[in-house]
Amino acid sequence: MTSERTTLYRDKQNAKLMGVCSGIADYTGVNVLWVRLAALILAFSTGFAIPIYFVTGLLLNKKPAHLYVDQDEQKYWQRVRQSPQRSAREIRSQMRDIDRRLADVETYYVTSNPRLTAEIERLR
User: Fold this and answer.
1) Neighbours of 42 (CB within 10 A)
2) d(CA 35, CA 9)
3) Whole-angstrom Cα distance, residue 74 to residue 65?
4) Checking CA distances to 124, which of 17, 34, 79, 96 falls within 20 to 30 Å?
5) Which residues contact 49 (CB under 8 A, 6 or more apart)?
6) Phi, psi at residue 62, to the nearest 5°?
């Protein structure tokens, strides 16, 4: 099950050549400058980096324009791609916090409203 947001794309909007480096930067969350510098170093130190770049550029799909709603969503999905387990733990923790807060609200309203308490007990 591959999500549209967990796929590597060419990012033509921020591209200098074919969008491979900007796509890798978008996918990993690393600054595009560092990805481009690494690509240049690989290109000059090895001969096979340039053909790999062009083959990758031909094989990758173009990034859809509607992929992210805003920057926060983009950063969220970058964190998910970097560590899905950590993202799941963070979401579980947030849900536990919400559950605890709702229980506190329920306790407050039930204890401060004897009529509501009696109604809840009658329904049980």
Assistant:
1) 15
2) 15
3) 12
4) 96
5) 39, 42, 43
6) -75, 140
Encode pLDDT of 48-99 as tens digits. 888 888 888 888 878 777 777 777 877 777 777 777 777 778 888 889 999 8
Distance CA 35, CA 16 (A): 12
Give the position of tokens 């240049």: 40
**Residue (of 44, 45, 43, 46) closest to 20 by Cα position:** 43
Evaluate whether 10 touches 62 at the Cβ level (below 8 Å): yes
What is the C-alpha separation between 58 and 53, in angstroms, rounded? 9
Helices 49-59 & 32-45, crossing angle to 10 degrees?
A: 130
Cα-trace Rg, the chain:
24
Q: How far is CA 19 from CA 85, 104, 107, 115, in A?
A: 29, 50, 54, 64
**Structure-block tokens of residue 80:** 């998910």
What distance, in Å, lies between the first and last C-alpha atoms of the chain? Answer: 42
